[in-house]
Amino acid sequence: MSVSVAFPSLSCSPLDSMLGSPCLLWLLAVTFSLVLRAQPLDPEYSEEEKEDETPWSPLPAVFCDYDRCRHLQVPCKELQEASPRACLCPGLSSPGQPPAPPRLGEVHVVAEVGSAVVHWCAPSSPVHQYWLLLWEGSGAPQKGPPLNSTVRRAELKGLKPGSAYVVCVVAANAAGESNVTAVGGARGEGPEGAGGPAFGPCGRLAMPPRPLSLVHAAVGVSTALALLSCGALVWHFCLRQRCGCPRRARPTAGL
Length: 255
What we know:
By secondary structure, the protein is an alpha+beta fold. It is 30% helix and 20% strand. The chain is built from six helices and eleven strands. Strands 5, 6, 7, 9, 10 and 11 form a six-stranded antiparallel β-sheet that branches. Strands 3-4-8 form a three-stranded antiparallel β-sheet, with no helix packed on it. Helix 4 links the parallel strand 1 and strand 2. Residues 182-189 have low confidence and may be disordered.
């Protein structure tokens, strides 16, 4: 329904407008009413409109608290869902491709118990599980148990003192497993084939002799030296008794 506002018609002659007749007053009243309708009367309302019209600037993007080398690291997608603020994850390769090789990190050797703790960093690829390969000499590698995608550390047990090994970390997903041959040494070649580039998936592992064996060796050497010394003394006294030892003549006292 349309509502029309009718203003009373008023005929004004040019002579009346010049003389200040009511026609001029009527024109001023109509103009003033139109201005009031066009502008809001509340100044606070106009200020709020101006504030709403200011452009909105988005918050700067931040990276999620994700570390490829952290042990038991939660996947980055889960961090994005749980974070109250939007964060970015590092880029990954296609899930339809085998993962890139992991990067082998620090290897801590415990010679007393014949074990070693191996650390590694995840590749820039989707990974479902890891496992370790261990070579001793030129024989076939020993494959460790599968580890889930959050693991970045594993322990090798039963290592022989004084032996040399090659350890490699393998990553796998639905498309396949990471390559070890072209990066860290040919499979089955043992320590001789593990001279790949730095920061690869493989590395050499040399087990030192146990400290107890060194103590035993030192005790054995000391015992042998003591026996040799005793034997030399016995042989010397026996030889002296058989051959005899000339006695020195006592000088005669002068008169």
